[in-house]
Amino acid sequence: MRVAAILTAAGSGRRLGHALPKALVPVAGVTLVVHAARGLAASGAVDEIVVTVPADHRPAFADALGTADLSGVTVTLVVGGATRQASVAAALAGLGPDVDVVLVHDAARALTPPSLVGQVVDAVRGGGRAVVPCLPVTDSLVDVADHEVRPVDRSTLRVVQTPQGFDRALLDRAHAAAGHRAGDERAAATDDASLCAALGEPLTVVPGAAAAFKITTALDLAVAEVLLGQEAS
Ligand code: C5P
After folding, report:
1. Tens of pLDDT along the chain (233 residues)?
2. Is domain 2-232 in CATH 3.10.180.10, yes or no?
3. I need a surface site. Which of 10, 112, 123, 171 has the fewest CB within 10 A?
4. Which of 6, 8, 57, 191 to probe ligand 1 with, by most ligand atoms within 8 A of CB?
């Protein structure tokens, strides 16, 4: 079984309020994309990593990843598309025919524990064709559609994380079926399991990890600095 991980890093990171693309922002002196790639490589469960990058920052990504110690795991860069979905589709299109398991992971989840990567790959090996790490919702929720405010029962809801793991043929089929949505941010999928679910495929849930939170805001970045600082001391 050859396992490829697509690491999405082609976003702008506008919500972070940084001049650099989010994946190039350093935390504890190392860019987010390198933290995320190291986590994938350290799992020992990934054979190759394909990173989606913004076209105008490709050289900076090549520099950062070229000098990172990734335990011998091969890294390839692919220029991303207009949306996350389009970026994943571009990376998928370039995978070799020998890849049969694909992980899709966000560089923004830079502190994801290697053990979670391993658990997702194990679940695919165990027969899960679309594997999603999830956490329970801890906040109370309301639905504000149509200008009405309705409380929502959170007990059956889950927060979805990455890496998500897939049978490669299924993920290819899911992206092909949803290709018409990929160019428009309002229509595009924000994750890949939802594209498989749209084909009627059952999803396999594994427990997520608090450390796999998505770094989106300046506060998230500050939390990541504290956590990595604790690791170093
Ligand atoms: O914008 P958001 O935080 O939801 O992006 C999730 C992930 O998808 C990030 O790691 C980002 O770099 C990546 N992305 C991408 N191509 C895009 C937009 C986002 O690879 N066009």
Report:
1. 899 999 999 998 777 777 789 999 999 999 999 999 999 999 999 999 999 999 999 999 999 999 998 999 999 999 999 999 999 999 999 999 999 999 999 999 999 999 999 999 999 999 999 999 999 999 999 999 999 999 999 999 999 999 999 999 999 999 999 999 999 999 999 999 999 999 999 999 999 999 999 999 999 999 999 998 877 66
2. no
3. 123
4. 8
